[in-house]
Amino acid sequence: xxxxxxxxxxxxxxxxxxxxxxxxAACSDYGGDLSGTNVSGGGDxxxxxxxxxAGVPSSFLAYGVxxxxxxxxxxxxxxxxxxxxxxxxxxxxxxxxxxxxxxxxSAMIAMGRRMPIQMVAAGTSTADDPAEDFASxxxxxxxxxxxxxxxxGTRIAVNSLQNINDVVVNSVLTEAGLSNxxxxxxxxxxxxxxxxxxxxxVDAGVLIEPFAxxxxxxxxxxxxxxxxxxxxxxxxxxxxxxxxxVADDPELVAAFRAGVERTARxxxxxxxxxxxxxPEISDLSPELAGRMNLPxxxxxxxxESIETIHAVMRExxxxxxxxxxxxxxxD
Length: 331
Fold this sequence. Notes:
Layout: H1 13-26, E1 47-53, H2 56-66, H3 69-72, E2 76-82, H4 89-94, E3 99-103, H5 104-112, E4 117-122, E5 124-125, E6 135-140, E7 155-158, H6 164-175, E8 184-187, H7 193-199, E9 204-208, H8 211-217, E10 220-224, H9 226-230, E11 237-242, H10 243-248, H11 250-269, H12 271-281, H13 286-291, E12 296-297, H14 303-316, H15 325-328
């Protein structure tokens, strides 16, 4: 089927300029660089260029493409890996990409600052069982930190500041009678966190897969499962499109969402096939792909997760904006 070309770049020009100014003034609010992604332009007609976090999240979409799920829905999906978080929002607003794979926290910070974007489908979620969480709060095996109560006054390594880590670590600390003010977050790349913990540069760290499995294999001990601790089945990732695109081309938005949902069902019904495909569509070794905790995908956004995350964001000062769920989510 043929659909009209994406248009209206000028309509978001002023907002994009404001976002870039915001990025230079307070980019830590977004947990990452706001310079955009390395893509050359969005798609035409039925083609959608989506920029999604490199690794398992982008591999999920690549798997759906390889299985023909998006083509069956009439979507020619082109996947461009990114560093994730808020880095993709300027590229989305400028029209360089059509869909941005981000996280709920980055999305709601941007929406709270009146960026014209909407969540059109769910990205990664976690499991219900803490043992299957794809994020881990870890310490060394011989660390004196044996319970979350012992985190008082410690340094916790995270891969981004003022983002999802603040939200989920807060849930662990709150149950221990502490708050984020009782610890110091130290930002560093995920691959550097295990060694920093072992050296004693930090006392603990938040790792997501595959780095959580790598850390455990190197002797790090899991202190808490922060995603599940915040809410079993917590939705972390989301796919974003501009509000203008959602209004102008609802059929294409629905077709993209249907492709995500079909891919999610396929992974849920046969996770072994997805694990087997990961070494071919990512840099993961077969051994690591076979044993790490996988994220969970559903396709549709989870209102309870989004409302839970937003409430914590307001509590810890990541946003002061109210949540208008019907405007934020285009399901």
